[in-house]
Fold this sequence. Notes:
Elements: H1 4-7, H2 12-20, H3 25-31, E1 36-37, H4 38-44, H5 50-62, E2 66-71, E3 77-82, H6 84-87, H7 90-101
Antiparallel strand pairs: 1-3, 2-3
Amino acid sequence: MRDATFCSSSCNVTRTMGVLGGKWKLIIISYLRQRRRFGQLVQRSALISRKVLTEQLRELEEDGIVRREAFAELPPRVEYSLTEYGQALLPIIDQLVAWHNASPVIVAAPTGEMPPPSV
């Protein structure tokens, strides 16, 4: 859920967190390096409920980061991809991963964790 206080702040970092903050958004963006169907995102994001995934995708679409394309087929098909604006985030996410990997203290992921996004 988006926090209006964050999005309307005069601080650039706070406004950025208003758009990208939340537990799943950067993970979803990373998964969308390739165009994916909703069902593929559900499978890839096993720890995210369908409801939360849908909410996060809607917010990312509203912010111009994700493009949603619905096809008039039976069964219905919806595909998500990154906009040019969203693709600009990928090098930043890669830098965050590199920063973490270079960290002297690496915390092991507990079993049952989602696999890291492929870079």
